[in-house]
Design a protein that fits this description.
Layout: H1 5-12, E1 20-23, E2 26-29, E3 32-33, H2 34-41, E4 45-49, H3 51-70, E5 77-82, H4 89-95, E6 101-104, H5 107-119, E7 128-130, H6 136-147, E8 153-157, H7 162-169, E9 174-181, E10 197-198, H8 199-210, E11 216-222, H9 233-252, E12 258-260, H10 277-295, E13 301-306, H11 308-311, E14 315-326, E15 332-336, H12 340-343, H13 345-349, E16 355-358, E17 366-372, E18 381-382, E19 391-394, E20 402-407, H14 413-417, E21 431-437, E22 443-449, H15 454-461
Length: about 475
């Protein structure tokens, strides 16, 4: 009878996989010895594997290039990174190595843009697409960027007031886009996205506020739906509705030449993950071309704003199982040395699934467990492992430490969790390391941030150190 943890994984999934391999009884991630990381830096530990950011960008660009070639598509493709997924300098630096552009969401994003411009990592040849609901500071920052000569900064109009605010703040001519307020799936609590302008209102809005505006030129239509890019009747129906608006706009506004289909590519959340990226891109390009040819209008240039897809699969977290609590005859709680609420908030907030695997002891027998965090909060647990409600891990032993890893956690977790700030129950933010490869392919590591100290939290809380 096969009762070892390695048997369970091998019987349930195809293993090893591209990024996950085994060395004796310990797990490797992109050939990184994870137990060596633990021995060097301790646990809990967060890490960012920087090369994966470039890997995913290059994959997407190749998929789009292939689809454009197959369908003889006349438009160009532009990859933008959605900065809200992870604003860290090391993420932007790695992403911008790949000839991409960026998309912003709020006023302080423009401060990051200015910093990158000073460093030469961004230039005036890079598009800066400005999404989000724009109030005074955001409008002023956008205006300052454009007034400073960055003509490829394109604010995406989210509400009717913004066109007047931007026209007043910007000195000369400028380009704009309009965001479509997509209709949500029937299961949602509301019918239409709060973001953007409704399908039926875009043409009247253009005629009323943009056609006669001597400074603003409409260049882009922006389309995004909350559920992401999926092969469903709902997605294709919303895309076709968007294309109808683009075609109507193009016939009365020759300057609109770009379609932004937003983000929404999924990241791998299970060893059983199966998503045909190339098929989806092929079909999107094909549908756009067919619709435009039937209407006898030029096809648009394509922009995407991939955030989670860009950075998600670069991140990981490692915890140690501290103790096991047998709460009744069925439930065994493995207590980790950190908190899910603070370090992986999406698991708590939206029941997000990440790949979870044991780091060591793969040759030991396994058992069914629940995972609990350190906070005194009943919601601080994780039990949605892959395709099962239960979690299986090597059996707990007081004399044999067990480490577990959560993978593809690189998007949103730090910003939602409040990196460097207060944490629930004052559980400290773990140490964070950056992993890279040198020119010879050798793995290098450096500490980005140490684990929070009591002094750090007391200072935030206003306690006098004396």
């Amino acid at each position: 009878m096969k009762t070892k943890y390695i048997d369970l994984i091998d019987q349930t999934y195809y293993f090893p996989q591209e990024e996950f391999t085994l060395d004796d009884d310990t797990l490797k991630f992109h050939d990184i010895d994870l137990m060596a990381l633990v021995k060097k830096y301790g646990a809990p530990l967060k890490f960012t594997y920087l090369p994966q950011i470039s890997n995913n960008i290059q994959k997407a660009k190749k998929w789009f290039d292939k689809a454009i070639e197959i369908h003889n598509y006349a438009g160009k493709y532009h990859y933008c990174y959605c900065t809200k997924s992870s604003h860290f300098e090391h993420v932007l630096t790695e992403a911008l190595k790949n000839d991409i552009h960026i998309e912003t969401s709020s006023a302080f994003d423009i401060n990051i843009v200015n910093n990158l411009l000073k460093q030469g990592k961004l230039t005036k040849d890079h598009y800066v697409l400005c999404n989000g609901f724009k109030r005074e500071q955001y409008v002023q920052n956008i205006a300052d960027l454009i007034n400073g000569g960055h003509k490829k900064c394109i604010p995406i109009i989210d509400n009717y007031e913004e066109i007047d605010l931007l026209t007043e703040a910007i000195d000369g001519n400028f380009d704009i886009g309009i965001r479509i307020a997509s209709e949500e799936e029937p299961k949602f609590e509301f019918y239409t996205s709060r973001l953007g302008i409704g399908y039926k209102n875009i043409i009247p809005f253009y005629n009323r506020a943009i056609a006669g505006n001597e400074k603003a030129t409409l260049k882009m239509l922006h389309f995004f739906i909350n559920t992401g890019i999926r092969d469903t009747a709902y997605y294709w129906n919303e895309l076709l509705k968007c294309l109808k608006v683009y075609i109507q706009l193009r016939k009365i506004c020759p300057t609109v030449d770009s379609l932004n289909i937003g983000g929404g590519f999924p990241t791998k959340n299970s060893l059983a993950f199966n998503y045909d990226y190339q098929y989806m891109i092929d079909e999107i390009i094909n549908q756009i071309k067919i619709s435009c040819e039937e209407a006898d209008v030029p096809v648009p240039h394509i922009f995407t704003e991939f955030g989670s897809f860009t950075v998600g699969e670069s991140g990981g977290a490692i915890y140690e199982v501290l103790y096991q609590k047998q709460q009744n005859d069925r439930e065994k709680w493995n207590m980790i040395n950190s908190s899910f609420i603070t370090t992986l908030p999406d698991t708590w907030a939206i029941s997000k699934r990440f790949i979870m695997l044991a780091i060591n002891r793969w040759n030991d027998e396994y058992e069914r467990v629940l995972l609990g965090g350190l906070t005194c909060d009943s919601d601080d647990y994780y039990n949605s492992e892959q395709n099962m409600n239960a979690i299986y891990l090597p059996k707990y032993s007081k004399t044999k430490p067990l480490y577990i890893g959560f993978f593809n956690t690189g998007a949103y977790q730090e910003t939602i969790g409040g990196f460097g700030g207060l944490q629930h129950c004052l559980i400290p933010t773990p140490k964070h390391i950056l992993i890279d490869r040198d020119q010879d392919g050798n793995i290098t590591t450096e500490i980005f941030a140490e684990q929070q100290r009591a002094e750090d939290l007391l200072k935030i809380l206003g306690y006098d150190e004396n």
